[in-house]
Design brief:
- With 100 residues, this protein is an all-alpha fold.
- It contains five helices and no strands.
């Protein structure tokens, strides 16, 4: 019993689609390799210049601003105990002067 073969035209289309996919993959890989190479070069140049990597550091007093901060400590105290000083400090009133 003979195995039927697909028509030649379909095989050519399949091969062409597969070739296009392969060429796209190769192009993508080439771009990724190139970008990785550029990134490595940039990092090496920064090391040569003596630049350090950026680190995020938050000072301890900034972290504790709700405990010691101006907005969370002084203003509520003035508003509760000394309304005149509060108004003078903010140069405004405690009630809104506008309406919606």
């Amino acid at each position: 019993m003979a195995i039927p073969t697909p028509p030649q035209q379909e095989t050519d289309e399949y091969n062409t689609d597969e070739l296009e996919m392969n060429s796209l993959l190769i192009n993508n890989l080439t771009i990724q390799l190139y970008l990785t190479h550029l990134l490595n070069i940039d990092q090496q140049q920064k090391k040569k210049r003596g630049m350090k990597a950026h680190r995020w550091f938050v000072r301890s007093w900034i972290v504790q601003r709700e405990q010691y901060g101006h907005y969370h400590q002084l203003l509520p105290h003035l508003l509760e105990h000394d309304l005149d000083s509060y108004r003078y400090y903010l140069r405004g009133s405690t009630t809104p002067s506008f309406s919606f």
